[in-house]
């Protein structure tokens, strides 16, 4: 058993469950880029079909902030892009197509076609970056023989691909996507499934994530601790991660004591 030190507290644990996006990899570089590809394609196709459709700000609906050049620079940690599933995001887009006058079937098909275009662009570009300090922290976990898993709102196949892009797949004993459970975050299903596969009790694991949904999931599963990680630029971290037991601004604030 290892002693995980976070802030002024320490927690005896046998494993750690990591959220993926915004926790292992930089969220904006990955999902901001993907979203721009998808939403630009959808807006263009919808305009071609329906003329000047005058619909909602798709970026705002997904919880994305853009700079003057139309590039993603931030996201709402409690918004759909950060906490939702791919299926939920597609439904948001389809609802805009339906509201513009398309049939629901046409709107869904258009949204999925644009997703495929965005996925193909990401495969070509692979704009993924690790979170600062995460590589050394994962290595420290490996040296202490901790059981590690990923629990993500992403689908498993895509999550595996992203971990391979970062060359960190080998650190994780299990990768649990939302497609493997009946209910995703903030429900406890993914933590419970990961712990069953790791042969651990939920009370023996820490959960690290960047959204309140991650922290609510940790509490629902009765994990040892829910640790929220948030950028130093975010001054309202306690509000955004109100369910967190501990909030840190980087992996440098996590360490291991004597086991």
Automatic annotation (TrEMBL):
<dbReference type="GO" id="GO:0008967">
    <property type="term" value="F:phosphoglycolate phosphatase activity"/>
</dbReference>
<dbReference type="InterPro" id="IPR036412">
    <property type="entry name" value="HAD-like_sf"/>
</dbReference>
<dbReference type="InterPro" id="IPR050155">
    <property type="entry name" value="HAD-like_hydrolase_sf"/>
</dbReference>
<dbReference type="Pfam" id="PF00702">
    <property type="entry name" value="Hydrolase"/>
</dbReference>
<protein>
    <submittedName>
        <fullName>HAD family phosphatase</fullName>
    </submittedName>
</protein>
<dbReference type="GO" id="GO:0006281">
    <property type="term" value="P:DNA repair"/>
</dbReference>
<dbReference type="InterPro" id="IPR006439">
    <property type="entry name" value="HAD-SF_hydro_IA"/>
</dbReference>
<dbReference type="InterPro" id="IPR023214">
    <property type="entry name" value="HAD_sf"/>
</dbReference>
């Amino acid at each position: 058993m290892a002693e995980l030190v976070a802030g002024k507290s320490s927690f005896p644990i046998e494993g750690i469950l990591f959220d993926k996006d915004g926790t292992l990899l930089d969220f904006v570089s990955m999902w901001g880029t993907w979203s721009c590809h998808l939403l630009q394609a959808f807006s263009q196709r919808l305009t071609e079909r329906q003329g000047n459709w005058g619909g909602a700000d798709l970026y705002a609906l997904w919880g994305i902030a853009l700079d003057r050049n139309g590039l993603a620079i931030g996201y709402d940690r409690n918004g759909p892009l950060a906490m939702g599933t791919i299926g939920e995001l597609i439904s948001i887009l389809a609802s805009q197509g339906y509201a513009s006058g398309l049939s629901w079937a046409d709107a869904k098909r258009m949204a999925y076609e644009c997703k495929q275009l965005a996925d193909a662009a990401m495969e070509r570009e692979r704009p993924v970056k690790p979170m600062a300090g995460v590589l050394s922290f994962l290595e420290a976990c490996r040296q202490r023989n901790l059981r590690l898993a990923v629990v993500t709102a992403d689908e498993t196949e895509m999550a595996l691909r992203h971990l391979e892009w970062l060359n960190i797949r080998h650190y994780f004993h299990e990768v649990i996507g939302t497609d493997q459970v009946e209910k995703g975050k903030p429900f406890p299903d993914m933590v419970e499934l990961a712990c069953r596969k790791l042969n651990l009790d939920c009370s023996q694991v820490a959960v690290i994530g960047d959204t309140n949904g991650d922290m609510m999931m940790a509490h629902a599963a009765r994990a040892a601790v829910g640790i929220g990680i948030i950028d130093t630029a975010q001054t309202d971290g306690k509000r955004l991660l109100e369910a967190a037991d501990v909030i840190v601004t980087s992996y440098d604030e996590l360490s291991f004591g004597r086991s």
